[in-house]
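User: Here's a chain of 226 residues. Predict its fold as tokens.
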Amino acid sequence: MSAIDVLCRVPLFADLHDEERRELAARLGKRTFAADMILFHKGSPSQALYLIESGSVRAFALSDAGQEMTLDIYGPGECFGETALVDGQMRSAGAMTLEPTVTYTLPRDDFLCCLERHPAVARRALALLADRLNRLTAFTEHLAFLDVTGRTAAVLLELAEHHGVDAGHSEIGLHLTQAELASCCVASRVMVNKVLGVLRDEGLIKIEGQAMTILDAEGLRRKLPG
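Assistant: Prediction complete.
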């Protein structure tokens, strides 16, 4: 897949004309990562926007005690790292690959120049930032108001919606380890495994190794209050 193909897949750059994409593609740098590799740490300089060609990346926060909390997961056709580029601050979270991943990077100066030259891209960037904020707000509400069962159900529904591999968004296209899923739920691996066992026994999900399929989405939603 070429750099131009990747730009065509990323909604942020959907309004660019072919010549504009070609010009921007010439400024992209391709990078290949193995699984479980750190792309950047929290507090590191914000030097580039990342666009994913293949694979997946999770954004995470790390406590002083070493406990990880997964904030979001990005897949093919998505970009990430834009917030720190806009405000010029250090990275507010770390990023790590979940599997072998290929990315393209757009340097910060080129990204800011693109926003200035193309108002449609700037509007899409604002919409993206708003979406990130809404998802972070929902994540915070889950932490504050849901127990481990509710948080696990909410995470499974979110993963299926954004990373489903079928038309019904029932099969989750990410094969997360037990520790990675627990970090998404902000709970211990033991507690999340117990909840998954209950949800499986209730016929709400199917588990085959690291692969998970939602069998009853409405049943999962009933685990959420309100």
